[in-house]
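Q: I'm writing up a methods section and want to include an example of the input and output format. Could you take the sequence below and give the corresponding predicted structure tokens, formatted cleanly so I can copy it straight into the document?
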Amino acid sequence: MTVQNGAAGPEASESGGSHGGVHELLLVRHGESVGNVAAMRAEQAGREELELETRDADTPLSPLGEQQAAALGSWLGTRGADDGPQAVWCSPYVRAVQTATIALDGAGSALVLRQDERLRDRELGILDRLTTLGVDARFPSESGRRRLLGKFYYRPPGGESWADLVLRVRSFLVDLDREEDGRRVLVVAHDAVIMSIRYVCERLSEHEVLELARRSPVRNAAVTHLLREGDAWRAGVVNEDEHLVRASAPVTEHAGDRDALPH
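A: Here is the clean output for your methods example:
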């Protein structure tokens, strides 16, 4: 039995009734980033900190990530009026903007890319740029707090918990319903943002969303398709990456939402 979370989803109006709102959501994680690569290398080398020159918001795609974004563009180019996006919204972080821009250009799309800061990646506060080993070594008390509180509710000092992220995702979805009523919307963002959107739309519980994140991490440039049916949302395609395979673009599954790594 599915346990619904208590707050209303984006389909609920202030009067308690339902409205049209967005008809479909195409959720895409950005392509592989330089930060993804740096995090992987730091973990493999047993280092405490990532070697990364940019702040998280300015971290660009890796060359492989650009290839994945181009493959996404080829996929978008095959979509017609009945299944292609009618609007595009994006995280303002460079890796997400690059993914969306490369894809739209490759598809020959004239859609305007709209950015919204509420789609930015989860902020990690004092744990930013640290590996798991680095957090354990430099902030052992925080490692203990995270184990006690759990991933969903643990908030790093100066950062956000998943619950904090969900709050801004709820706000974004309400505004999206108003601005894109009846449309099919492409959202390019980050793995934790995509999982939070699913949490809200599908009315998942804490356990369910964390189990999804553990069992099916959001792959770079993969597509998840949510469909609205009356007052409920359901996931159709999840983590679809056939467009990457067809374009011979390597499929990458970087563990994104570790509390100590940029994603």
